[in-house]
């Protein structure tokens, strides 16, 4: 009860409690100076320097909590948001078919759903259709009418519904509603890659990062359903919009700092135009005059992954004293 009282007036921020997104999320919060201590086995942590409470939840549940306005902000995968939205569409279709749908209730009260604030730049992977590498299936349409194992049941249902419609030559999306799939979707909560080898499924739909796990399981990809990465989402009616914007600004600054370095160099003024074509900066390069006649100093943000060839090009146009500095944080558009 004491902890519940401490949540009063705090913005609730959902963070993945485990899995591939957890550590990168914690690193991002640390870079944004969101200070907290998570006690053992507690899924709520109070932030010390801001009126925020972190709520640690399964990544798959975060879109639901944000979408229903139970928490204000969340970090999760784009795939999880898409799966949640597909589930909402499926539920709405089922209610309409059973005459339980009431548009007046749906339109009243707190706005439902979540909005994407930004891509966080980590956790990139693909939700793919995978089949046995030495099997008979070469295209996704070959799996129509077969057994498909997945933990993404709603996205998989929509994917195969579209395939079945295409096979039938149908073009009206409304025909998806209420139709019974010939393809059987089998919900699995873990070790999806083993489903084919164990005879549970003919193919699977699962997340793939490097592809090594799937290759080891004797599988190959035949299609990509969704390209995904970690995203920041917010409620459509957050309790403190100003604080949401502050957090987003801080996180954006950390992400920018991770992607860029500051490149500083001296160059003859006659070569300045050529040099700033190489280092245009995010908005524009910063140029200042040197005490030495005919020379200027230039500072510009450069993508970290491009810095080596950029330095080579600067040398070729006559730049000297080239320095590369790490950026720990920033605020920029």
Rounded to an integer in angstroms, the radius of gyration calculated over CA atoms is: 25 Å
Oligomer: single chain
Instruction: Tell how many strands the DSSP assignment holds.
Output: 15
Order of helices and strands: HEHEEHEHHEEEHEEHEEHEHEEHE
For the largest beta sheet, what order do the strands appear in spatially?
A: 2-3-1-4-11-5
Domain ATP phosphoribosyltransferase catalytic: 59-252
GO biological process, one term: L-histidine biosynthetic process
Subcellular location: Cytoplasm
Family: Belongs to the ATP phosphoribosyltransferase family.
Structure description:
Belongs to the ATP phosphoribosyltransferase family. Residues 59-252 form the ATP phosphoribosyltransferase catalytic domain. The protein is α/β, with parallel strands linked by helices and 333 residues long. Helix content is 31%, strand content 28%. A six-stranded mixed β-sheet has the order 2-3-1-4-11-5. The chain has a five-stranded mixed β-sheet with strand order 8-7-9-6-10. A four-stranded antiparallel β-sheet has the order 13-14-12-15. Strand 7 (147-150), helix 6 and strand 8 (184-187) form a beta-alpha-beta unit. The chain is globular.
What is the topology?
Layout: H1 2-6, E1 11-16, H2 22-31, E2 44-46, E3 52-57, H3 62-67, E4 73-77, H4 78-97, H5 103-106, E5 114-119, E6 125-132, E7 147-150, H6 153-168, E8 184-187, E9 203-208, H7 212-216, E10 219-228, E11 230-235, H8 241-259, E12 260-268, H9 272-278, E13 286-289, E14 295-303, H10 307-316, E15 320-326
Parallel strand pairs: 1-3, 1-4, 7-8, 7-9
Antiparallel strand pairs: 2-3, 4-11, 5-11, 6-9, 6-10, 12-14, 12-15, 13-14
Main location: cytoplasm
Pfam families: HisG (PF01634), HisG_C (PF08029)
EC number: 2.4.2.17
């Amino acid at each position: 009860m004491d902890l519940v009282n401490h949540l009063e007036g705090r913005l609730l921020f959902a963070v993945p409690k485990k899995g591939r997104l957890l550590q990168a999320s914690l690193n991002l919060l640390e870079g944004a100076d969101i200070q907290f201590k998570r006690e053992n086995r507690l899924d709520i942590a109070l932030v010390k320097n801001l009126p925020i409470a972190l709520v640690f939840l399964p990544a798959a549940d975060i879109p639901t909590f944000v979408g229903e306005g139970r928490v204000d902000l969340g970090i999760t995968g784009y795939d999880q948001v898409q799966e949640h939205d597909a589930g909402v569409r499926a539920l709405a279709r089922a209610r309409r078919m059973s005459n339980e749908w009431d548009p007046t209730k749906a339109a009243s009260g707190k706005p439902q759903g979540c909005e994407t604030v930004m891509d966080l730049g980590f956790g990139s992977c693909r939700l793919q259709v995978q089949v046995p590498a030495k099997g008979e299936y070469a295209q996704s349409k070959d799996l129509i009418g077969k057994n498909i194992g997945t933990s993404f049941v709603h996205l998989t249902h929509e994917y195969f519904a579209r395939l079945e419609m295409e096979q039938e030559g149908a073009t009206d999306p409304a025909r998806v509603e209420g139709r019974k799939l010939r393809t059987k979707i089998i919900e699995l909560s873990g070790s999806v890659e083993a489903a084919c080898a164990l005879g549970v499924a003919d193919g699977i739909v699962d997340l793939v990062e490097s592809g090594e796990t799937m290759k080891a399981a004797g599988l190959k990809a035949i299609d990509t359903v969704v390209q995904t990465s970690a995203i920041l989402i917010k409620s459509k009616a957050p309790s403190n919009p100003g604080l949401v914007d502050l957090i987003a600004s801080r996180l954006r600054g950390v992400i920018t700092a991770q992607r860029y370095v500051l490149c500083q160099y001296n160059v003859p003024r006659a070569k300045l135009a050529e040099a700033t074509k190489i280092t245009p900066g995010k908005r524009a390069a910063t140029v200042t005059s040197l005490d030495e006649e005919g020379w200027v100093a230039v500072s510009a943000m450069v993508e970290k992954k491009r810095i080596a060839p950029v330095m080579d090009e600067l040398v070729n146009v006559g730049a000297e004293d080239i320095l590369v500095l790490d950026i720990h944080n920033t605020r920029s558009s």
